[in-house]
Amino acid sequence: MPELPEVETVRRTLMELVSGKKIKAVTVRLPRIIQRPAEPEQFADALAGRTIETVERRGKFLRIMLDGLVLVSHLRMEGRYGVFPSEEPVELHTHVIFHFDDGTDLRYKDVRQFGTMHLFEPGEELRLPPLNKLGIEPLEPGFTLDALQSRLAKRTSKIKPLLLNQEHIVGLGNIYVDEALFQARIHPERSPDTLKPAEWKRLHEAIRATLSRAVDAGGSSIKSYVNGQGEMGMFQHQLLVYGRKDEPCPSCSKPILKFTVGGRGTHICGKCQPIPKTKQAAPQ
Question: Which domain holds residue 176?
Fold first, then answer.
């Protein structure tokens, strides 16, 4: 699933590609992608004649801001956007097409068919699902050390699932949580209430630094992710532990371990991220 760096990269490319374009018509080829309004015909009719003003992001969601409406889009596992000449043949698994009056299309393709689109009045999207319960943005000024601790420090469950919970911090997925915890030298099964002040400081800095570097690199293309221009991200070449089972740790040369935490495949260095004495993680 695209995480914050990947969605931010898509946002930036869509800004270049579609800002200022006027929608002539919309074709919905897979109705279940459209979550709000319930009828795809209403969705298409509401967008016809609208102009895309800008593209914003909230967590892993895109907010496509039009004149008088907001389209909230989640890419889920493999959703992707691309701009094509209208006369170009439509690729398989293309489910929603926004036809512009300049002879181009914005096409949404999704092999897994898990993506969603919601249409709202401006401002309404922040008060209603799916955006209304999202947590703090980790690359915004409000993501301070105090803000991180105030949300998590007293909790007694494992820290990795908490960091993945979008109601606490948005945009973090499996890749970047593994990377941030490694850089902070924190085992993913530690509970936040056991972390020392120096560990909180390292974690806060690691989250921001990891995400910032990933955004600069255009995200990570681990599976099928590409940006709005069809280009791969490059941050996968900078990953320190994620996807590197049995490879040497870049800090101590011990082999990277992989096991499961909260149902998610997890990568750590057993030496740099000591295993809690009450827990013995089982490497795969």
Answer: 145-269
Single residue among 74, 95, 126 that ends a domain in this structure:
126
How far apart CA 265 and CA 14 sit, in angstroms, is 31
Q: What is the CATH number of the domain that holds 211?
A: 1.10.8.50
43: burial class by Cβ within 10 Å (0-12, 13-18, 19+)?
Answer: buried
Is 78 noted as a catalytic residue in this protein?
A: no
Say if CB 241 and CB 179 are below 8 A apart: yes
Active-site annotation holds for 60: yes
pTM over 0.85: yes
Neighbours of 36 (CB within 10 A): 17
From the candidates 3, 6, 125, 179, give the one annotated as an active-site residue. Answer: 3
Which of 246, 226, 242 lies closest to 234, judged by CA?
Answer: 226
pLDDT tens digits along 66-77: 999 999 999 998
Of 98, 30, 25, the closest CA to residue 64 belongs to 98
Q: What is the pLDDT, as a whole number, of residue 276?
A: 67
Q: Would you call 192 a catalytic residue per the annotation?
A: no
Catalytic residue selected from 36, 201, 244, 264:
264
As for how many domains the chain has, the answer is 2
Rounded Cα gap, residues 122 and 125, in angstroms: 7
